[in-house]
């Protein structure tokens, strides 16, 4: 494999450093072998999100086309004025305020995440209460504060404006789809087919990481002279960002309590979201899934055990979001409280908020960082370089 075949100036440098310092009390040169492996995973985002067998229309181009029309259709909402695109529009496919406005002037409870690259995620919503992108769409559709809709409104709109293309895809008309839940699930599947295609990959960051890895094979001097050196080193070492924001999506697909200020009734995050997701008829193992015995579905029951055993980890925990396209998607965190990337870095620098400001127990990885001005700047610069190009 690539790692094993790598020529060894790096290894020699490593040996030399440990020899000179007695490997004691000194900082290991960056990147170590383990860190190099993690670096290699960072720049390999596939052009398309992984296959989702729970939606048999996920990669159907007719479904994507109808999904696009529905994503922008305000008449799917109960109030007639709110579409998915109202809160997931513009370059960043989100809003630039902490909360977004749904039907009748209601504000959302949390910051809308971007729908860019959404189907690379394992979980959806900040608290993970949806396990597939298609079932996720049912939540804003039926949420009274967002689109305030229901199966009857949706079916009537489909009949009015999209009956032919709907029938072409599903083999029956919206009116013949008598189960209201099936109508909602079908619309979700169309939304997913569209959303899966809206990705931004290939960021300057990817180029920087590739060049940086190539420098490792040349010399440690070349590594340290690389413009990305300080940013990456801070991301890996002092900042510990790589612990959670890892892999090609820059997310571990897990949930953590990092101490973001939140004392609202829903502040318990993943801990209160999981049981409803497991009981939900729309989940990957439920009757509306197109692959009820697939891996996604069979993993769900195991999570019931997590719920019993891991309260401390789950309470106040939120999904590690992707950092791709992060410069386009502010403000930040599930509360939208942090306005700029500088604010985010300062939040981590101080080790999150004090315990009284949020629910649950902060994970031990989040501690005061004591970043220098240069380290702070280099991290911000690194985050800014993660904006990809539209596919
Ligand atoms: C009124 C604003 C609003 C509308 C309308 C809206 N959303 Fe959202 N969206 C949000 C908010 C807020 C969240 C985060 C909610 C949470 O985590 O509790 C979200 C989350 C999402 C996510 C999860 C992304 C992730 O990474 O977890 C996706 C995907 C999404 N919305 C797609 C849609 C689709 C599709 C529609 C239309 C059916 C839609 N949204 C309508 C505000 C909105
Ligand atoms: C222990 C895991 C963990 C570590 C370590 C970590 N993060 Fe995060 N990050 C998260 C989670 C979880 C969230 C969402 C938290 C929330 O909203 O409550 C987040 C949110 C963010 C956001 C906001 C994303 C958005 O869409 O709003 C940015 C930017 C970010 N992190 C960057 C960093 C940087 C830079 C570092 C290193 C200094 C870092 N993170 C370290 C887990 C982590």
TrEMBL record:
What detail does the entry give on cofactor binding?
A: Binds 2 heme groups.
Q: Which UniProt keywords apply?
A: Heme, Iron, Metal-binding, Oxidoreductase, Peroxidase, Signal
- Tell me the organism: Stigmatella aurantiaca
Q: Which InterPro entries does the record associate with it? A: Cyt_c-like_dom_sf (IPR036909), Cytochrome_c_Peroxidase/MauG (IPR051395), Di-haem_cyt_c_peroxidsae (IPR004852), MauG/Cytc_peroxidase (IPR026259)
PROSITE patterns for the chain: PROKAR_LIPOPROTEIN
User: PTM details?
Assistant: Binds 2 heme groups per subunit.
Name by which UniProt lists this protein: Cytochrome c peroxidase
Cofactors that this protein relies on: heme
Q: Which residues form the Di-haem cytochrome c peroxidase domain?
A: 63-209
List of residues binding heme c 2? 241, 244-245
Annotated localization: Cell envelope
Binding of heme c 1 occurs at: 84, 87-88
Q: What main location does UniProt list? A: other
Q: Which GO terms describe its cellular component?
A: cell envelope
Q: Name one GO molecular function term.
A: cytochrome-c peroxidase activity
Q: What is the lineage of its organism?
A: Bacteria, Pseudomonadati, Myxococcota, Myxococcia, Myxococcales
The highest taxon in the source lineage is Bacteria
Q: From which residue to which does the signal peptide run?
A: 1-23
Q: Does the keyword section mention Iron?
A: yes
């Amino acid at each position: 494999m690539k790692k094993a075949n790598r020529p060894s100036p790096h290894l020699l440098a490593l040996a030399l450093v440990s020899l000179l310092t007695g490997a004691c009390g000194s900082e290991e040169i960056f990147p170590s072998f383990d860190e190099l492996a993690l670096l290699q995973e960072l720049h390999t985002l596939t052009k398309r999100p992984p296959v989702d067998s729970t939606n048999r229309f996920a990669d159907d181009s007719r479904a994507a086309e109808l999904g696009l029309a529905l994503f922008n259709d305000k008449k799917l909402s109960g109030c007639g004025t709110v579409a998915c695109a109202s809160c997931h529009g513009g370059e960043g496919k989100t809003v630039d305020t902490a909360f977004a406005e749904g039907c009748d002037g209601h504000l959302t409870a949390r910051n809308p995440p971007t729908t860019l690259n959404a189907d690379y995620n394992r979980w959806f919503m900040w608290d993970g209460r949806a396990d597939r992108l298609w079932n996720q769409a049912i939540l804003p559709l039926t949420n009274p504060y967002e689109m305030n809709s229901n199966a009857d409104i949706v079916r009537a709109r489909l009949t009015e404006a999209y009956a032919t293309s709907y029938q072409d895809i599903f083999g029956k008309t919206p009116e013949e789809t008598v189960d209201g839940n099936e109508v909602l699930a079908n619309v979700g599947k169309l939304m997913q087919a569209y959303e899966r295609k809206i990705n931004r990959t290939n960021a300057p960051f990817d180029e920087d990481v590739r060049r940086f890895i190539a420098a490792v094979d040349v010399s440690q001097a070349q590594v340290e002279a690389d413009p990305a050196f300080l940013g990456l080193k801070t991301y890996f070492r002092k900042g510990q960002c790589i612990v959670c924001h890892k892999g090609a999506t820059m997310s571990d697909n897990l949930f953590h309590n990092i101490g973001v200020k939140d004392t609202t009734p829903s502040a318990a995050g993943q801990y209160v979201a999981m049981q409803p997701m497991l009981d939900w008829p729309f989940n990957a193992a439920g009757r509306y899934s197109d692959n009820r015995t697939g891996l996604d579905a069979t993993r769900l029951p195991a999570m019931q055990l997590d719920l019993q055993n891991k309260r401390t980890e789950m309470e106040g925990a939120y999904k590690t979001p992707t950092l791709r396209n992060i410069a386009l998607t502010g403000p930040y965190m599930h509360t939208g409280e942090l306005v700029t990337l500088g604010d985010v870095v300062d939040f981590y620098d101080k080790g999150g908020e004090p315990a009284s400001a949020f629910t649950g127990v902060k994970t031990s990885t989040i501690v005061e960082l004591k970043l220098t001005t240069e380290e702070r700047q280099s991290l911000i610069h690194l985050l800014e370089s993660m904006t990809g190009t539209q596919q």
